[in-house]
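Task: complex structure prediction.
Instruction: return structure tokens for all chains below.
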Amino acid sequence: MTMWTIVLIASALSFATKFTGYLVPARLLEHPTATRVANLLTVAMLAALVAVQSLAVGSAIEVDARIPAVMVAAVLFAIRAPFIVAVIAAGAVAALLRLLGWAG
Amino acid sequence: MAFSPTQRVAFRSGIAVGIAVATYGFSFGALSVASGLDIWQTCVLSLVLFSGGSQFAVVGVVASGGLAAGWTAIASSAFLGLRNGIYSIRMAPIVGTSWWRRPIAAQLTIDESTAVALNQSEVSAQRVGFWTTGIAVFIGWNLTTFAGALVGNVLGDVNGLGLDAVAAAAFLGLLWPRLRQLQAGVVAAVAAVLATILIPMTPPGVPVLAGAVVALIVGLTNWLHRDEVTS
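Output:
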């Protein structure tokens, strides 16, 4: 699979999902299960992505500079720092720890 | 076009949200080119896929699993984007049934445009909120994606030093505002633990998809649900 295939299929599915919502009857929303599952799907996938991005290197678990970096981001999110500030801080912490040789 | 006071409020929040979201676009653009996508692929994701969480998912999964993880990247992105379909159902009466307006509205149906629309009480203001936010976010997000991709391209390897941490922090930032309810918090914790356990046992991408199973089980049984208490 090429990168373009991935980009175009993912994009087409995104638009199809959005457009389908305009074609189906609004009755679907009266049943709260669909809404709840869609919301929880978002939460679960994002949480799994946080875990994988913080710990995985290919198919191995490695604890490295990412953990302190993500903890710094978590503190910043908790005190309602803007998204870009927390994200840049995380990148800076990881880069600094690696430059100093304190973490892999 | 003259706005009523309520429409003006909706218009202003739409512009403000558009500006705030534009800053995410910069991190997406930089992360995307550093993950192996070129500038054009990065821009197509922002122009056509146009849903932040799904875009970060494509880039994140490809960054760790490479092209071999293509289908899991697509599936993660699609599952994350299912909520947009629900938003569309909710926005349909606001948008109307015009044949040319619906596909454009569909493209602009995301967290932000839906949230600003639902925040207004009158339908006319909801309409202004939806379109203003959708268009403002679309323009801002795409401009900053392009800028981020250009900068990321120039930074090259230097960017790689803290990049994996940037991706993790970005997902955490997208997750954070969704954790207010107990049910969501438990689903997040279980999905994260399950994904961690699966990392050494499954190909890259699968640990993320396993989160979908957790969401389905809790969502369908409505386990841990608490009735909203109005105090």
